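Query form — protein rRNA methylase, putative, group 3

QUESTION: What is the three-dimensional structure of this chain?
INPUT:
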Amino acid sequence: MADYIEGKRPIIEALRTQVPIKRILLADNAKRDGLVEDILRKAKHFDVDVTTVPRKTLDDKSERGSHQGVMAETKPHAYVDITVIERAAEAYAEENGGRALVVILDHLTDAGNLGAIARSAEAVGACGLVIPNKRSAKVDASTYKSSAGAIAHLPVAQVPNLVQVMARLKERGFWVAGASEQTDDVIWRSNLKGKIALVMGNEAEGLSRVVKESCDFLVKLPQMGEVASLNVAQASTACMYEWLRQNY
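ANSWER: The C-alpha cells for rRNA methylase, putative, group 3 are given below.
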C-alpha cells in the first residue's frame, strides 16, 4: 500500500527535505494559490510528476481528510544491504586513521527519533544505520523531516537479526558498545577509539536482553538531574559525539 503526504505545506517540506516522491496528485478544482505554485515549481525542479485527478480520488485516498486538494505519493526508501555499510566503514577507516562508526538501533518505534538519530549520525561521519526489519520504525516522510534530509545521505540497512550483524562487525574489527543505564561505566571513561558499533535501545525498554548480552561492553551517560533518562535521540547524539571527540 502506498504512503501519502497530505496538504500543501507538508508536501513543500517533503520536497525541500528530499523525501523520495513518486508523484504528486493535484485535484482538478484545486485553487492555484502561492503554495500550490511553490509545489509545482519544486516538483519541476526535482523532476517529480504532477498528475491532475478528480478531487474524489484524493478524498478516497486521504486518511485524515486534510489533503487541501494535493497529495504526494512517496516511494519506498532505498535500504541497502549490510555489506554496503561494512564496505563503507572499511574504506572510511582506511582514510581516517582507523576510526569508523556504525549505529545500530534496537527496535526503535518512532520514525521521528530515527530521523533525529540519522541527522546526528550523518553529522559525525557515521558510515550507516542498522535497523530491524520487523517491530521497528521504518524510514518514512517524518524521518526525512526530523533528519532535515540527512537520511538521504546515510546508508540504512534493514536486517532480520541484529545479533548476527553485531557478530559480523566484530569479525571486521569493530568493538560493540551498548548504551544502557544498567552499567556503572560512564561513556567518557570508556575507550571508543577506532571502529565502534554503537547500539541504542528501544524508547521504553532500552536494549533487549539478547542484544545487551552480545555487546562487548556497556556505557552510560551520567545523570545529574531528576529526570530518569534522556530521549533516545538526545542520548544517541551525546554518545556519537563522544565517539567523535575521542577520535578527532
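ADDITIONAL NOTE: Residues 232-247 form the longest helix (16 residues).
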